[in-house]
UniProtKB/TrEMBL annotation, chain A:
TM segment ranges: 12-35, 71-100, 112-135, 147-167, 187-212, 247-266
Pfam families (alphabetical): BPD_transp_1
Family named by the database record: Belongs to the binding-protein-dependent transport system permease family.
Function comment: Part of the ABC transporter complex UgpBAEC involved in sn-glycerol-3-phosphate (G3P) import. Probably responsible for the translocation of the substrate across the membrane.
Alphabetical list of InterPro entries matching this protein: MetI-like (IPR000515), MetI-like_sf (IPR035906)
Subunit structure: The complex is composed of two ATP-binding proteins (UgpC), two transmembrane proteins (UgpA and UgpE) and a solute-binding protein (UgpB).
Keywords for the protein's UniProt record, in alphabetical order: Cell inner membrane, Cell membrane, Membrane, Transmembrane, Transmembrane helix, Transport
UniProt lineage: Bacteria, Pseudomonadati, Pseudomonadota, Alphaproteobacteria, Rhodospirillales
ABC transmembrane type-1 domain ranges (all copies): 75-266
Protein's membrane topology: Multi-pass membrane protein
Protein's name in the database: sn-glycerol-3-phosphate transport system permease protein UgpE
Biological source species: Dongia sedimenti
Highest taxon of source: Bacteria
TrEMBL record, chain B:
Organism phylogeny: Bacteria, Pseudomonadati, Pseudomonadota, Alphaproteobacteria, Rhodospirillales
A Pfam family this chain is assigned to: BPD_transp_1
Record's bilayer topology term: Multi-pass membrane protein
InterPro entries: MetI-like, MetI-like_sf
Protein name stated in the entry: Sugar ABC transporter permease
Ranges where the ABC transmembrane type-1 domain occurs: 82-305
């Protein structure tokens, strides 16, 4: 018996060693950038892996970034684009998922399949035509252009996730409401919407992260006039100040900090949402 | 779903297309059709047009595709980007899937202490912007900073260091591995979700019978996650053949050195917007996008009708 126990312990140690090893690989580059963004130039090159000490601590990089580029504005743009798109995806997505799951009508399956095309086919491939259309509508270099495209991009998966979720809501609830003569709109807003709140986290992860991180559409549809999102803004800034290591490291840190903080705060939610989405 | 829908049919759906269904469907249907499906179809249409010097467009049938596949000025970079994209995908399939599978297998071990912390940290790179990741790795691999050189030297392997991103022979592999580093969280979390859903009694039964852990994994758990591996493969395929951000951030639109990291996404961007002296060409860009769409569709259909069906058969 002690023999077996010892072997189990050795195995456990090996498992943790492997996991810790890979966790270091996964987090070290991120930590390296955050640490060095707060050091003086000579310390960045002198001892890159050292934590900042009182003598090497220096926020000059952050100062330069905030002076030379409008990162606050870019943050604002990213927040507006991401939250408005998410809201539209949630509202329109929930309505469509409800209609497709609840009512039997001619063409139901066809519409459901049509709405699902976007899960597999990347909307990016329609860029030539999207740009033409956005220019025609006079929406070039506006956040509205990004919001419209991102809403279209996020809908297919949101409809799938919300549909799966709504299917689990007990039938009695809506039938009872219907017997009382409540309108279909009221059933949706008063009975169904409050019940899908747990699915919102899942939809939010799948919708917000790709939008926040996207470079392609901001680059093509809104690359100037102070309409840059934080991802594009950071990319442009770094391209311009590539030799200023303090500023580059600070810009990188500023671009990832909000996502990192949100992720650490909500990580339980997020990973659960992802696993739930995977299991369906 | 069918039984619910049928019941709904009996209670509410007597008339076809009652207004409330239209009202519920319209917003999503319209935005999605206008900004997703219509542009895709219009791109295919545009790929059949050519433009003269004045920008006047005229129908030329499959002319753009003939040029793309036969004119050496176009076909060479196109096939180069396609080949690079295949290598990019192959590296993801082999490295990313095996690391993801290994991590998921370890994480899903019963009564593993700290599983939540590992999960959070391991998934972290996946949440970050590809652009930022690209720059971070560019700094780390830079000979100027000397981080990677210092590490190799500490391990006594200092002579192995080379400017991997700058050399034609190693740039594509390096970029692919950086992408793997970032996205390994996706296969990990999907496989992990599948593994923890395997009923415990299956594994307990085998363990009681004295099967060693590796045997239990290979013979009992792995076959049960084959369908998830299928999903991972098709997601990787679509993501890889649509990739752009990482290469653009690290190597620019030219995807150097000498086109060594050029993939279809960067080739599409250059064709559409132009670079240096070559002017952008929207109709040719549409043709490249249509080719990418075709490649992705072939992959998706192969998965739906080949892989997935076989997997269902295998499980049944």
């Amino acid at each position: 018996m002690p023999m077996v126990n010892r072997r189990v312990n050795v195995n456990r140690i090996a498992v943790h060693a492997a996991l810790i090893f890979y966790t270091l690989i996964a987090t070290f580059p991120i930590a390296l950038v955050l640490i060095n963004s707060m050091k003086s130039r000579s310390a960045i090159f002198g001892d890159p892996v050292a934590l900042p000490t009182p003598s090497t601590f220096d926020l000059i990089g952050y100062q330069q970034v905030l002076e030379k580029a409008d990162f606050v504005l870019y943050f604002g743009n990213s927040i507006v684009v991401t939250t408005v798109s998410l809201l539209l995806v949630l509202i329109a997505g929930a309505m469509a998922a409800w209609a497709l799951g609840e009512y039997r009508f001619k063409g139901n399956t066809l519409v459901a399949l049509y709405m699902a095309i976007g899960i597999m086919v990347p909307i990016r491939l329609g860029t030539v035509s999207i740009l033409k259309m956005i220019v025609g509508m006079g929406l070039i270099n506006t956040l509205t252009a990004l919001i419209l495209v991102y809403t279209a991009m996020g809908l297919p998966l949101a409809i799938l996730i919300l549909g799966e979720f709504m299917a689990q809501i007990p039938r009695d609830l809506r039938e009872a409401a219907r017997c009382d003569g409540v309108s279909e709109y009221r059933i949706f807003t008063a009975v169904i919407l409050p019940l899908i709140r747990p699915a919102v986290a899942t939809v939010a992860v799948f919708t917000m992260v790709p939008i926040w991180n996207d470079l392609w559409f901001p680059l093509i549809l809104a690359s100037g006039d102070g309409k840059q999102t934080i991802t594009l803004g950071a990319q442009q800034f770094i391209g311009q100040y590539v030799t200023n290591w303090n500023a580059v490291l600070a810009a990188l840190s500023l671009a990832i900090a909000p996502i990192l903080i949100l992720y650490v705060v909500f990580s339980r939610h997020l990973v659960r949402g992802l696993t739930m989405g995977a299991v369906k | 779903m069918t039984s619910i829908a049928m019941a709904a049919d009996a209670s509410v759906g007597r008339r076809r297309w009652p207004t409330h269904i239209v009202v519920f469907l319209a917003p999503a249907f319209l935005v999605y059709t206008l900004f997703s499906i219509y542009p895709l179809i219009d791109t295919i249409r545009l790929s059949l047009y050519g433009a003269d010097e004045t920008g006047q467009q005229s129908f030329i049938g499959i002319g753009n595709f003939v040029t793309l596949l036969t004119d050496p000025n176009w076909s060479k970079p196109f096939w180069n980007a396609f080949r690079n994209n295949l290598i990019f995908f192959a590296i993801h399939m082999v490295v990313q899937t095996s690391i993801g599978l290994a991590l998921a297998a370890l994480l899903s071990l019963p009564r593993l202490k700290g599983a939540g912390v590992y999960r959070t940290l391991l998934f972290m790179p996946t949440m970050l912007s590809v652009v930022i990741i690209g720059f971070i790795w560019q700094l780390i691999l830079s000979p100027l900073w000397g981080i990677s050189k210092g590490f190799l030297a500490a391990l006594g392997l200092g002579s192995l260091f080379a400017p991997w991103l700058g050399q034609e022979g190693t740039a594509l592999i390096t970029v692919s591995l950086i992408s793997v580093w970032q996205f390994v969280g996706i296969p990990m979390i999907l496989i992990y979700a599948a593994l923890i859903n395997i009923p415990d009694d299956l594994i307990d039964a085998a363990t009681v019978d004295g099967a060693p852990p590796f045997y239990v994994f290979w013979v009992i758990r792995l076959p049960l996650v084959y369908p998830t591996l299928g999903v991972v493969s098709i997601l990787t395929f679509v993501g890889n053949f649509n990739a752009f951000d990482l290469i653009y951030a690290m190597k620019g639109a030219q995807a150097g050195p000498n086109g060594a990291t050029d993939i279809l996404g960067t080739f599409f961007y250059r064709t559409f917007f132009g670079y240096q002296l070559q002017a952008g060409n929207p109709t040719m860009g549409a043709a490249v996008a249509t080719m990418m769409l075709f490649i992705i569709m072939v992959g998706v259909l192969f998965y739906l009708f080949g892989v997935q069906r076989k997997l269902q058969h295998h499980l049944a």
